[in-house]
């Protein structure tokens, strides 16, 4: 129901590249053309990042011992999968119950960091979050102390 805009995908890509953390980025096949020009070549040259186009076995990925963080839209399934895998989360709620779920993750359970809108909205746009905000959230989730505390609570 929610489509990521070209400009937002660019912000995500640039933030992940700037964080210099190992990541798996999953995009839908119809969004392949939205990947910033040269991004795949730059991360491929580093040899430690992966872009997957299409469906992935999310639970298997999250359960892997090297996965520490998860950027999620805060749908119930994703939250259950993240918690059961013991990963910290970057909570990016977009619409409906996702805002309440993000509050559960960040304020109650304290297993994640929120980005984007933090109040309920009936709209379903995934746009407007700048790379600096994404970088800060990813850095906190991947931090040795903060991130490890979040993972232990999860």
TrEMBL record:
Keywords: Glycosyltransferase, Transferase
Gene Ontology MF terms: UDP-glucosyltransferase activity
Similarity comment: family membership: Belongs to the UDP-glycosyltransferase family.
Entry annotated with the keyword Transferase: yes
Keyword Glycosyltransferase set for record: yes
UniProt-recorded name of the protein: Uncharacterized protein
InterPro entries: UDP_glucos_trans
Superkingdom to which the source organism belongs: Eukaryota
């Amino acid at each position: 129901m929610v489509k990521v805009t070209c400009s937002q995908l660019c912000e995500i890509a640039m933030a992940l590249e700037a964080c210099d953390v190992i990541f798996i980025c999953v995009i839908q096949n119809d969004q392949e053309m939205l990947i910033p020009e040269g991004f795949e070549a730059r991360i491929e040259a580093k040899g430690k990042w992966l872009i997957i186009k299409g469906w992935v076995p999310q639970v298997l990925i999250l359960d892997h011992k090297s996965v520490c963080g998860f950027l999620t839209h805060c749908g119930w399934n994703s939250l259950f999968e993240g918690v059961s895998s013991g990963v910290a989360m970057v909570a990016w709620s977009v619409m409906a119950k996702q805002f309440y779920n993000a509050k559960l993750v960040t304020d109650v359970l304290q297993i994640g960091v929120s980005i984007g809108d933090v109040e309920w909205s009936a709209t379903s746009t995934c746009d407007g979050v700048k790379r600096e905000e994404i970088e800060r959230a990813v850095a906190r989730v991947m931090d040795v102390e903060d991130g490890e505390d979040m993972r232990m609570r999860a």
